[in-house]
UniProtKB/TrEMBL annotation:
Name of the protein described by the UniProt record: Peptidase M48 Ste24p
Alphabetically ordered keywords of this record: Hydrolase, Metal-binding, Metalloprotease, Protease, Signal, Zinc
The organism of origin for this protein: Aurantiacibacter spongiae
One Gene Ontology term, aspect cellular component: membrane
Ribosomal protein among keywords: no
Molecular function, one GO term: metal ion binding
InterPro entries, sorted: Mito/Outer_Membr_Metalloprot, Peptidase_M48
Length: 497
C-alpha cells in the first residue's frame, strides 16, 4: 500500500476494478493502434504515443520506478533483447523500467515500453533468464497481441463487459467470492492477463528467437518458467492455498508444464551464454519482498511504518499488498484496506464509499454505527446485496486517523456472515515510533558456497522463520536432487542493517 495517500488516490473498489478495464479500452472510441499492422513491423508513431500516454499510469500502479545501478542493469539487458525484435533499430527506442513491486510480474505495451518488477528479477538466476522474460513480453508487442485484444474487445462492446467485470469483482460468485481475490488487480497488469494460449506460446517462441539472436542460451526460457511455477506453488503453500499451480505472473497463461516442454523444444540443441556471475553481482543488495515504504506483511500481520498503523488477518486468511490497497483473502470472504478523500466526517465517508461501489445499483448500508477501536474513532455499515445467485453482505469499516485522513476496509461475505472479519476490524491500531523503526527491508545477499556448505547450511541464513530450505531452493532454481556447488554463487535473503 502506497506511502503517499491523498485526495488524488480515490482507491474505491470501482476505481480498482475498472482500472484494468480502462487499459483494455485505451481506444474504445477510435481505431486501435497496431491492430492491423503485420507482426514484427516497426513501432508506429501512434503506438509510441499510446505507450507514452499511459506510461506513468502503469508505473504508479506497480509501486513506482526504481533508479540506480539495479535499474540501469535491467534497462541495459531489456534494450539489448528488445532490439532483436525488429520493432526499432535503435536500442534507445525502448523504455525499460524496473518497478518497485513485490509481485512477480513483467509486461510490455505498444510503443516500446517494457516493465519488470524487482521481485521477478530477484527470482532469476542468470542474465539469460532476465533476457528471456523481457523478450517474452516484447514478443507480445511485436505480435501486436494487445492491439488485437483491444480491437476484439471493442467489437464485443467493451462497455458492457466493463459492467460485467465490475459486478463480478464487487459482488462475487456463489461462494462470495471473486471480490479482491487478486489483491487489487490494476491497470498495467490487466494487459497481460487475457492473452490466448496461442498468443502465449507465440510470445514464448519469439522470446526464444530473440535469445538466440542475442547470443544467449535459449534454454533460459524453460528454466525461467520452471522457477515461476515453483515460486507460485511455494506462495500457495505458505498462504494455505491449494489453487496456485500457475505463476501469478502468468495467471491465465497456458499450463506451465506444457510451456516448459514447448520452450525446451524451441531451444533445441542451441547453446549460448547465461552470464550467471555478472547477473548475481548486478542484483546483489536489491530489496526483496515488501518495501517498508509501502507497508510489509509479516505472517498474518500488516504493518506500515510510514503511515503508522498495523492490523492482523484472521487465522486461515492470507494477505496481498499492492500499491493502493491490501487485500485479505480466504474461503469465508474477501476484504481490502484502502483509503479515499476524507473531510472529517466518518458517517459521510462510509456512505460515500458505499455509493462509489457501483454505477448500476445503489448500494446503501442498513445504517452507520459509531465505535472506537484501540483509541481510533471508527464507523461501519453493512449492506445486503443480491449478486444474481445469492445474497451477500458488503461491509465498510472506516477509521479516522486525523481530520483529513481515514482508512477503510471493504469486505464481502455470504449473507449473515459479516462477522467473519470482526477480529480484523478490531485489530487496527496505531504503532509506536519504536515499532516503526524496527521495520526494515529484506535484501538479496549474494554469497559464495564454501566447501562445507549445503542447501541446509545456506538456507539457515535466510531471514524467514519458516520454510527456509524451500525458499532457498526456489530462489536459486535448485530443483529435484540439485545441491549447492562449492565456489558457486547463491542468493540468500537477509535483513538490512
Amino acid at each position: 500500500m502506497s506511502h503517499s495517500p491523498s485526495a488524488t488516490i480515490t482507491a474505491r473498489i470501482r476505481t480498482l476494478a475498472l482500472a484494468g478495464v480502462a487499459s483494455l479500452s485505451l481506444a474504445a472510441c477510435a481505431s486501435v493502434p497496431g491492430a492491423n499492422i503485420p507482426p514484427g513491423s516497426p513501432i508506429t508513431q501512434a503506438e509510441a504515443q499510446q505507450g507514452a500516454e499511459y506510461h506513468q499510469q502503469f508505473v504508479q500502479e506497480f509501486g513506482g520506478e526504481m533508479t540506480g545501478p539495479h535499474a540501469q542493469y535491467v534497462q541495459q539487458i531489456g534494450q539489448n533483447i528488445a532490439v532483436q525484435s525488429g520493432l526499432a533499430q535503435n536500442r534507445n527506442a525502448f523504455d525499460v523500467t524496473l518497478l518497485n513491486s513485490s509481485v512477480n510480474n513483467a509486461f510490455a505495451v505498444p510503443g516500446g515500453y517494457v516493465y519488470a518488477t524487482r521481485q521477478l528479477v530477484n527470482l532469476m538466476n542468470n542474465e539469460a533468464e532476465l533476457a528471456a522474460v523481457l523478450g517474452h513480453e516484447v514478443g507480445h508487442v511485436a505480435a501486436r497481441h494487445s492491439a488485437r485484444r483491444q480491437a476484439a474487445a471493442q467489437r464485443n462492446q467493451l462497455g458492457g463487459a466493463a459492467i460485467a467485470i465490475l459486478s463480478n469483482i464487487l459482488l462475487g460468485d456463489s461462494t462470495a467470492g471473486n471480490l479482491l481475490s487478486r489483491g487489487a488487480l490494476q491497470g498495467a497488469q490487466a494487459l497481460t492477463l487475457s492473452y490466448s494460449r496461442d498468443q502465449e506460446l507465440e510470445a514464448d517462441g519469439l522470446g526464444v528467437q530473440y535469445l538466440k539472436s542475442a547470443g544467449y542460451d535459449p534454454h533460459a526460457m524453460a528454466t525461467l518458467l520452471q522457477s515461476l511455477a515453483a515460486q507460485n506453488q511455494l506462495d500457495a503453500q505458505l498462504q494455505g492455498r491449494d489453487d496456485a499451480t500457475i505463476p501469478e505472473w502468468a495467471s491465465t497463461h497456458p499450463d506451465p508444464a506444457s510451456r516448459i516442454q514447448n520452450a525446451l523444444q524451441l531451444a533445441g540443441s542451441t547453446t549460448g551464454v547465461v552470464n550467471r556471475e555478472t547477473f548475481m553481482s548486478r542484483i546483489d543488495g536489491m530489496i526483496y519482498g515488501d518495501d517498508p515504504e509501502q507497508g510489509v506483511i509479516e505472517g498474518r500481520q500488516f504493518i506500515h511504518p510510514e503511515l503508522g498503523f498495523t492490523f492482523t488477518a484472521p487465522q486461515g486468511y492470507y494477505m496481498v499488498n499492492s500499491t493502493r490497497a491490501v487485500s485479505v483473502n480466504g474461503d469465508g470472504g474477501r476484504a481490502q484496506l484502502t483509503t479515499a478523500p476524507y473531510q472529517n466526517n466518518l458517517d459521510t465517508y462510509v456512505r460515500q464509499v458505499f455509493a462509489s461501489l457501483s454505477d448500476q445499483q445503489q448500494i446503501q448500508p442498513q445504517g452507520v454505527q459509531r465505535t472506537t477501536v484501540n483509541g481510533l474513532p471508527a464507523a461501519y455499515g453493512t449492506a445486503r446485496v443480491n449478486n444474481g445467485q445469492q445474497q451477500v453482505d458488503v461491509t465498510v469499516f472506516a477509521y479516522e486517523f486525523s481530520p483529513s485522513q481515514a482508512y477503510h476496509f471493504i469486505s464481502i461475505t455470504p449473507a449473515g456472515q459479516s462477522g467473519t472479519f470482526n477480529s480484523l476490524y478490531n485489530s487496527m491500531r496505531r504503532i509506536s515510533a519504536t515499532e516503526a523503526q524496527n521495520v526494515v527491508p529484506r535484501r538479496v545477499d549474494v554469497v559464495t558456497a564454501g566447501g562445507g556448505d549445503s542447501i541446509a547450511s545456506l538456507a539457515r541464513r535466510m531471514a524467514y522463520p519458516d520454510a527456509q530450505v524451500e525458499r532457498f531452493r526456489v530462489l536459486n532454481g535448485l530443483f529435484g536432487n540439485a545441491e549447492v556447488v562449492p565456489g558457486q554463487q547463491y542468493k540468500i535473503v537477509v535483513r538490512s542493517n
